[in-house]
Amino acid sequence: MVKKNENGGKVLAQNKKASHDYFIEDTFECGMVLTGTEIKSLRQSRANIGDAFATIRNGEAFVHNMHISPFEQGNRSNPTDPTRARKLLLKKVEINKLIGLTKQQGYTLVPLKVYVRNGYAKLLLGLGRGKKLYDKRDTAAKRDADRDIQRALRERQKVAR
């Protein structure tokens, strides 16, 4: 099942563990440089960004360990590495901002979602700060408390009717 993104694009892959492991402070939408068979495989939702991370080298952004399975009907004589580093398309101002934040303040670049919008593959890149174990416990406790509150409100509405 393909979900719709808030921007109208179809979400093809999502990193659900990112919000568990990082405080996401800012997000950036960027394009990706892909081959023809990679985009065809990506449109079939055959991508995994669970272990992916992004880096900036020589003024260019790259995503590493993003797995896109090879396309079955594609060119078999020229197979590409499914986890190769893929170039990300960002504006120079955004890249400079990311360089400053990742170098000085200890942030990391985490891929959050891959989706197609207006025919182009996009990657939602999050600027995250790592959570400690006690932060993860606080987040889980808050989520459980919110769930209990919602359950109590639903029960109260059922009784009132």
From TrEMBL:
GO CC entries: cytosol
Superkingdom of origin organism: Bacteria
Membrane spanning stretches: none
Subcellular location per the Swiss-Prot or TrEMBL entry: Cytoplasm
Alphabetized InterPro entries for the sequence: SmpB (IPR023620), SsrA-bd_prot (IPR000037), SsrA-bd_prot_CS (IPR020081)
Key words of the record: Cytoplasm, RNA-binding
Major localization class: cytoplasm
Keyword Transmembrane helix: no
Name recorded for this polypeptide: SsrA-binding protein
Source organism per UniProt: Paenibacillus albiflavus
Gene coding for it: smpB
